[in-house]
Known about the structure:
By secondary structure, the chain is an alpha+beta fold.
Amino acid sequence: MTTLPTWAVYAVSLGTPVLTFLGVLLAQWIARRGDVELEARSKREETMRTMRWAAELSAGGDQQLANLGVAELSALLESDLLDDSEKVFVEAALDAVYDDVEAEIERLGEEVEVVQYVAESGGGLATGAADDVSFVGSDREGDERRG
């Protein structure tokens, strides 16, 4: 019969469960890290889909949908969902929308009345200085434009 030294018996009997436990901890840490990266990637993809959707709405012909698109782009810009490199895309989309409004105002010339709205805390609108600008003008008789 072969005998093992006492230290070897203790090392095998205590070392095996300890090493197994450490292996499980390492595997769990690697899996959690992968899950966090996958979640961040999924969130980024969904945010980019939302940004594309909002940009398409803001450039569309329906004014209510365009307002929704601009509001969604503004919300994305202020949220923590995007980092600085991604916020550039939202700013470009908003700039394109606002450039169109500015070009339309210039095209209508002196026949344009610019009205600015500020959202009140109660949900209503009040006139005043704001980023959202609506205009009413006419480029020919009977063709009234609203934006």
